[in-house]
Design brief:
- The protein has 397 residues and is α/β, with parallel strands linked by helices.
- 39% of the residues lie in helices and 15% in strands.
- Helix 4 packs antiparallel against helix 14, helix 5 packs across helix 14 and helix 8 runs parallel beside helix 9.
- The longest helix has 18 residues.
Length: 397
């Protein structure tokens, strides 16, 4: 592994001001954050009944305003009806299948100073970046865990070490082992995304973290990630590059108003679907957990509220993949298999080299579901669902 001392890590240079381009950052200003929150809280039970009746008729796609009604406090008494609708729409679109994927962390080097993240630039740990041989060894170790074919390649945001050339090599190494390759790395220019698709890239995951710009700036004080508009317009660059699948989400616990954050996510999704309609979309809204930085979530979302949010999103959008990572406890992940979730990770290691050994590298976040892939697939089958290891093949590309 390539180790970087703290001093070398700090010598990464000044982050240049990016060229934002055009995208969702240019239109998000039409929605006022505080007014969005007030609108959600003003929802009545009659409003919720109207939206649920509209969803039952299944004649017209719900709007973000409809979604806002379903995540409101007024919708809490309707959770059983929402669960039934979410189950119906999930079965209708996805059948009784659950896709499995596994993350592979290739580097924990990062130039950002996100106050909540274990990879924070200022955390006093040696940083690790996998070599090509180590990436190959990780691929082989993952294949021994189960017949995974969907891999998520993850790195901290350190372009000098993990830029487009490094990622292209990583994709080339992984390609003989996996047919479906997704990355979760620093946002890039459209041309770089397009280049990576030529190396087998199928999808990109990027968390906006929070859509509330004032709080976003508090949590991301330094590094490229401090540029709110650059990150927000990254999804447009993915769409323009022809990326097959775009994953998006927020970290619940950053913004003080999680409902307003989710309303912005719904608006963003509808914007992307209209503009890049050939692209598939996935969403993920993990609850924040304590990190190595000592961060504690600002908002604690209860299990019942997470169920309400997940079922509301499935009713809002029948086609988007809803993913639960190993941040969530086994009981919650198992319970949600029938209520909207369509993909889960299994056997996750969140430090570089974690599948070949038990290194002392820095983890990005604490894993809650530590079951083996075999145990996760057994739980899926007990719930009456079929685990899907492979839903994409190069022959169809």
């Amino acid at each position: 592994m390539q180790e970087i001392t703290d001093n070398a890590h700090k010598g990464s240079g000044t982050v240049p001001e990016p060229v934002f381009g055009h995208g969702f950052a240019d239109v998000i200003g039409q929605w006022d954050w505080d007014e969005t929150g007030r609108q959600i809280l003003a929802t009545t039970e009659a409003d919720v009944r109207r939206v649920l009746a509209k969803a039952r008729r299944n004649q017209k796609q719900l709007t973000p305003d409809d979604f806002m009604a379903l995540i409101s406090p007024a919708a809490a008494p309707f959770l059983e009806e929402m669960a039934q609708l979410a189950r119906h729409f999930t079965l209708e679109r996805f059948g009784k299948t659950i896709s499995l994927y596994i993350p592979m962390y290739v580097s924990n080097a990062c130039t950002n100073k996100c106050v909540y993240c274990g990879f924070n630039h200022d955390n006093p740990f040696a940083r690790t970046t996998l070599t090509g041989e180590q990436i190959k060894a990780e691929c082989e170790a993952i294949k021994k865990l189960g017949p995974f074919d969907n891999i998520l390649i993850v790195s901290g945001e350190f372009p000098a070490l993990c830029g487009v050339d490094y990622l292209a090599r990583a994709l080339d190494i992984c390609r003989p082992y996996f047919n479906n390759m997704t990355i979760e790395v620093q946002p890039m220019r459209m041309e770089k995304y397009r280049m990576l698709t030529e190396h087998g890239l199928n999808g990109v995951v990027c968390f906006q973290e929070t859509y509330h710009e004032p709080e976003y700036r508090i949590f991301h004080p330094r590094g490229m990630k401090s540029h709110y508009a650059w990150r927000l317009n990254g999804y447009d660059r993915m769409g323009q590059a022809g990326v097959h699948k775009i994953g998006m989400g927020v970290l619940i616990g950053l913004a003080s108003d999680w409902r307003a954050d989710m309303a912005m996510l719904a608006r963003h999704l509808r914007y992307l679907q209209k503009k890049y309609w050939r692209t598939r979309y996935s969403v993920n809204f993990p609850r924040m957990r304590p990190s190595e930085s000592g961060y504690q979530p600002n908002v604690v979302l209860s299990d019942r509220e997470l169920v309400q949010l997940t079922t509301a999103f499935r009713i809002f959008d029948h086609d988007a993949d809803i993913s639960y990572s190993t941040r969530e406890a086994p009981e919650m992940r198992d319970a949600m298999l029938a209520l909207g979730v369509t993909s889960v990770s299994a056997g996750s290691q969140t430090e570089p080299g974690g599948y070949c050994s038990t290194p002392e590298a820095l983890e990005q976040f604490e894993v809650s579901d530590q079951r083996t892939p075999k145990a996760v697939t057994e739980a899926i089958r007990r719930a009456g669902y079929e685990p899907v290891w492979k839903d994409w093949d190069a022959v169809f590309d």
